[in-house]
Amino acid sequence: MAYEFIQVRTEGERVGVITLNRPKQLNALSPALMVELGQALKAFEADEAIGCIVLTGSEKAFAAGADIGAMATYTFADVYGDDYITRDWETIRSIRKPVIAAVSGFALGGGCELAMMCDFIIAADNARFGQPEIKLGIIPGAGGTQRLPRAVGKSKAMDLALTGRMMNADEAERAGLVSRVVPLDKLMDEALAAALTISGMGRLAVMAAKECVNRAFEGPLADGVMFERRLFHALFATEDQKEGMDAFVAKRAPQFKHR
Ligand code: CAA
């Protein structure tokens, strides 16, 4: 499929890569871009060969937020009634394969929110994260006020949301927003290596692990523990569990099914 605002490729057959591509606007997330992103994610989700997806931007910007030019004239009826801005943002949450955000440069506003919707974030040392919406007279609208405090705690989330300041990659790693920080020129190597590792694991176990960690992030502890237990039990019905444990006992590498 031909896309205008993103680029799509596969890497090593099992990894899907989506690159946001509106360089002149620092990858501002217009409604049209979000539609394309949703289509590309769904296509990789449906492709049996793909085990993990990497979402990235440019060196200068992962994404500088929702498109302010497009939003400037919107009324309450447009954004609430027609849900213009965030209508196509939910697709990524329905993707069951892991999505890694490889972030360099600005990840601001909706860009930070999009990165947080991914399963984990690997940051280049030039990455800068923030929720500057307050400076535009609005608040984050794609989950920022909810996911940021869960990721970095109330104090830092309040600081970022109320002052609109940016935090650099080191601060983001210390705060727990990103899983690793790497030199800019190593960002894609690191993200692709992680994606390749994940895509080599048993597909059902990967899906179950993602579901369980999201449950911890989104719901109460008791529910999450019970949910995890049920899926843990269920994985004993898979061939990958037999293979993984047999291989360990036999001191050989496992041959997972990848489906
Ligand atoms: N929307 C539309 N265009 C944007 C944009 C955005 N979010 N961010 C940057 N651009 C455009 C600029 O208008 C500029 O275009 P022109 O060359 O045509 O003038 C181009 O990208 C380059 O930007 P700058 O010249 O500003 O670059 P800079 O290096 O001086 O500054 C920046 C970079 C600090 C990221 C600055 O561009 C900036 O502050 N951008 C806005 C960030 C922001 O407020 N994001 C939140 C948006 S609201 C939101 O996301 C709502 C939500 O929760 C869903």
TrEMBL record:
InterPro entries: ClpP/crotonase-like_dom_sf, Enoyl-CoA_hyd/isom_CS, Enoyl-CoA_hydra/iso, Enoyl-CoA_hydra_C. Gene3D superfamilies: 2-enoyl-CoA Hydratase, Chain A, domain 1, Lyase 2-enoyl-coa Hydratase, Chain A, domain 2. It is an enzyme of class 4 (lyase). Its EC number is 4.2.1.17. Pfam families: ECH_1 (PF00378). Keywords: Lyase. The keyword Transcription does not apply. GO terms for molecular function: enoyl-CoA hydratase activity. The keyword Lyase applies. Belongs to the enoyl-CoA hydratase/isomerase family. This is Enoyl-CoA hydratase. It comes from Ottowia pentelensis.
